[in-house]
Amino acid sequence: MGYDVHITRRVDWWAEDGQDISRAEWEAVVAADSGLAMAPLWWTAGRVVSKNPSDAVIATMCQVATVLAARVQGDDGEYYDA
Fold it and tell me: For residue range 41-80, what is the model confidence (pLDDT) as tens digits?
C-alpha cells in the first residue's frame, strides 16, 4: 500500500461531484511536456495520480495542476502548493 497524491479540480479528490480532468486534457499536457513521460503519473477517474511521489514529483504535479486549472491534494485531504 502507498500514499497517493492527486491532481484534481474537485474540492476533495474523493468527492463524486465536481469537474473532471478529461483523459484528452491529460494527454495534451503530456504531449506538450516531454518530461512528464518520465514522471510516475497516471490519469484515472477524472484526476491524475502518483503513488508515493518524491518532493520533485509533487513540485511537477503543482506545475501541471496550474496548467489544468486544478489543485494537488494528498490522500488525507491536505493541499500542496508550488
Answer: 999 999 999 999 999 999 999 999 999 999 999 999 999 9
Cell numbers representing residue 41 in the block = 503519473
- Give the C-alpha separation, 24 to 30, whole Å: 10
pLDDT at 82 over 70: no
The grid coordinates listed for 58 are 509533487
Cα–Cα distance measured from residue 22 to residue 3, given in angstroms and rounded to the nearest whole number: 23
| CA distance linking residue 77 with residue 31, whole number of Å | 29
Taking the domains of the chain in order of start, what are their residue ranges? 4-80
